């Protein structure tokens, strides 16, 4: 029975090969080239703008709020659009050693991770810090304490499912809103020349601030810019956290009656 899977696999490969050959005969281009020229190119023109980036991150956040890993769902789209821009930045920087040049792209993959994904999807490191600073509930503080170290490496499943963020009508708002604001902050800082552009493809697990420093070519202003974004995320999460804890206390009081 282990060999049964070979039949559909061979059929699938044959169909794809025929489609690819037909595409080459009709257009003179390989299928990958057709996709790159006529699909990825136009999508890149739309996606490589601040409205396009915001739409992508809104969709990512909404997926998470219904229990679906948003980054995984949109990884193919993001990587197709923004990895080539990152590679072009790396190549340009290697020649010019200038991380603020006009010939560099703003919306490169590492830049998105720097301003839209620090601490994980929803930039939840802002929520974790808000809990540690403002929370008066021991259960939330316990979750935040457990989530702090993973959050520093941009892994946030402990807080996302521990709070939980899924189907949470109160904290779900800043979960979607915070990345939009931090991306907008990063965009403004980059456009005015305060923050250098992303020129080093830093691993996504690099801790915030260090990530900003390395990604911008070991530039301290990259670290400062990411620190500003982190502060912005804390300010966004804090009032919603306070409202959420009031709701939790009300629910606990009603359950005790």
Compute the separation of the termini in Å. Answer: 60 Å
Order of helices and strands: HHHHHHHHHHH
Tally of individual helices: 11
Structural class: mainly alpha
Major β-sheet, in short?
A: none
- Write down the Rg: 22 Å
Helix content: over 70%
The chain-level mean pLDDT equals: 90
Unreliable stretches (pLDDT < 50, length at least 5) are: none
Portion in beta strands: under 5%
Based on Cα principal axes, name the global outline.
Answer: globular
Structure summary, number of beta strands: 0
Explain this structure.
The chain is mostly helical. 72% of the residues lie in helices and 0% in strands. It has 11 helices and no strands. Helix 3 runs antiparallel to helix 9 and helix 6 runs antiparallel to helix 7. The longest helix has 37 residues, at 220-256. The model has no long low-confidence stretch (mean pLDDT 90).
Brief descriptors of the model:
257 residues; mainly alpha; globular
Short recap of the structure:
With 257 residues, this protein is mainly α.
List the SSEs and their pairings.
Blueprint: H1 6-27, H2 31-47, H3 50-65, H4 70-96, H5 109-116, H6 125-134, H7 138-152, H8 157-162, H9 172-191, H10 210-215, H11 220-256
Helix pairs in contact: 3-4, 3-9, 6-7, 6-11, 9-11
